[in-house]
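hey can u check if this looks right to u? its 919 residues, i copy pasted from the old doc so theres a chance i mangled smth
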Amino acid sequence: MRPIKLIISAFGPYAGETVLDMEKLGKSGLYLITGDTGAGKTTIFDAITYALYGQASGTTRDAGMFRSKYARPETPTFVELTFLYGGRVYTVRRNPDYERPAKRGGGLVHQKAESQLTWPDGKVLTKTREVTAAVEEILGIDRSQFRQIAMIAQGDFLRLLLASTEERKEIFRRIFRTQKFELLQNRLKEEYSLLEHSRQEKERGIRQSIREIRMPKEREEGLPEDSAELSGPEAMELLESLIAEDQNRCEETEKQAETAAEAEAEINRLLGKAESEEKARGQLEKQREALSQEKASLQKKKEDLAREKERIPEWEALGAQIADIRSKMSRYGELEEQKEKKQRNEQAITETEEKRSRFEASIHSLQEALEKGREEQRAIGNPQAEGQQAENELHRSRDRLKRLKAALEKQGEWNTLKAKLEKAQSEYERAAEKEDRLHNHYYKKNRSFLDGQAGILAKELTAGEPCPVCGSREHPHPARLTEEIPEKSQVETARKEWEKARQQAEKASGKAMELRGKTQARETELAELGKELLGACGTEELPQRLGQRIQDEEQTLQSWRKKAEEIAERTARKQTLEEELPRQEALLTKEREELAELEKAAAALKESVRHQEETIQRLSESLEFSGVRQAEKALQELESQKNLMSRGREAAENAYHESQERVRALEGKVEALEKQLEHEETEGIHQIRERKIRLQQEKERFSREIGEIRLRLDRNQETLTRLREETESLQKTEETWKWVKSLSDTAGGTISGKEKIMLETYVQTAFFDRILECANTRLMVMTGGQYELKRRAAAENYRSQSGLEMDVIDHYNGSLRSVKTLSGGEAFKASLSLALGLSDEIQSSAGGVKLDTMFVDEGFGSLDEESLQQAVRALSELSRGDRLVGIISHVSELKEKIDRQIIVRKDREKGSRVILRTD
């Protein structure tokens, strides 16, 4: 990539549009970018980097800081670069975010960042991300790689020269992207940690399983004090012997339990037989006593049955009375029905009269409400027209209030800007005063230094001999030697202090100019707005008048709001009446019709009551009882007496027959029990029960022993299975753990007794060796064959990471020493060589990318004449072929050695400008 043309507008220290025709610099060789400190030499590289990638070359400046403080408000900020790559010409243009004057009206508007890439065939890209991606695709490198390849900055690469292994590793990681090897190191370390944790967990699991081994009491004495100290195989061997012993013991105890169970079954048979005989004797006595009592009861029940049979004629007379009452029950029902109808009709007459009274009251109330509503409807009138007027006034009042408040806010913003402007002007005055004071101080120091030099020369003058300065042989007014001559370093310090103060004054001036422009624009805008809202009005009285107008307008707005609310209420009420009055009229008509129907129904009910009273009188005269309830009550009493007599006779008969059956049953049971006990003779029941208790105790003991053995067997078999699985799993984990640990130690550089070089560092050493090979071809030229850089082969110790340390070979005396022992000029040569070597390696690792232009920034001031010659010669070798190298420096000796120059001049008021010199 070779820049052809660069256009910088309102960018950094360049106030106007600066066109740099870099085609005139040629295709190869050296050229110098020179000028005052702060004039904008490095900004040229910044502009190229920004045009390509949308970012500055360094890390201290971002795109939002590129707007020139010297630029006029109407001057646009942008960078346009035309460059050649692969024989094809591309043009890229970008501008950052910044504030610019509005094209219409006053004030400032925000100019968004924009990008544009024009391809050789005329195709254009305009999206920022697409432009940046296309540039990276064309050049084959991103911004970070471009900065490392195209810009050699002494300070950055001096740090690389003097860095430790850890610091150099971080630098190479960013440049050569070796993070993946670090990720592999960390992954192996994490995998080892996980396996180590898993191994320890499995060992803890085995120890826990060993602690769960169950031992019989007679074997516990032979177990080690801490059974958990047994190994897995030892524990499994112990478990297998315990399981075999418990299986044999369980079989023997089960046989003994079976024998005891057979003996218990025989005892149970004998005990059942003895208990049956004892129970039979007790039942015989009870049945004999029950038989005697039941025979006496049978005689009494026989007498009761005879008395009940004597009352049969009385029972038959009750039946005749019941039949007579039942034959007249239909007439009693008719009488009751007529009474109920008469009562319902009388109740209906009462309810009808009550309804008629309610309807009359409701009709009267409806008539009054209807008249009142019609009167209110006439009084409301037509509020719609008034509502529209109020709404229009509200809208106008709100609009006026909004504009007044906006004007008051702009007044506050103007006050804030004015205060900032006053502060900035004060800061500028102080900075300018400081600059003048330091400039006078520097001028005096420098004049004293020059006068002192002249005085020294004058002291050596001899009459008749030529002056070494002007060549004259006469010396009429030789300079006097002052008493105190300042050192050159003091003069340089005074110059730097003045230069720093000058930069601060320029910065303060730019800030004040920017604030003055914003304040004036806001003041103009505010004056126009105040004239529009208030008429003729000064800026100073504007806040008070705006505040008063806002209060008046708020009161007007509140008044119209209340009126609008009142009109809205009237409108809603009118709509309600328009809906309600027709409903009330319809309801009034309906209730009048219903009142007429009620009056007809009442007359019909009264006629029915008169007919029902006549029927009730006729039926009452022909019946014994006054009503159906009295007749039913008498019928129930007679039926109850008859039923009671029937149930008494039936109960006496049933009781007699049941007693007969019980006597016969008891006689049979007594006879059967007597026959059962004629020939029974068994062992004593108490002896049998004692024998059974002893057998049960023995069975329970066998059962407990079997339960304990089986529980121990189950637990130990589970533990044995688990131990086998855990031991096998531990063996597999330990096998993996061993080789992963070996890999992790190797990749992490932690093998005991060996040099600590991580995998990533080992990979980086290959890059480092190639960088040093390229660097030494130039360092040998710049140092006349004296120095050669070499990567340190052996570490200082085995405790810290190593592999990227660097020494220097001094071929004049054959010594090998640290690069930190180099002097300032020697260190610059070494760091420049190292930077150039790194640039070559980056281009190679980026796929053979070739950049036809390179920049070297500062560092030459520390070189003597011979070293400067050597450095220029090395850079000339670098620029042979089709490579163009730009040296950014203010060293005066370089101006004499390099003909092609870009000279940057700085104007205190107008910003920087560029002069291109090619002869």
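Residues 542-620 form the longest helix (79 residues).
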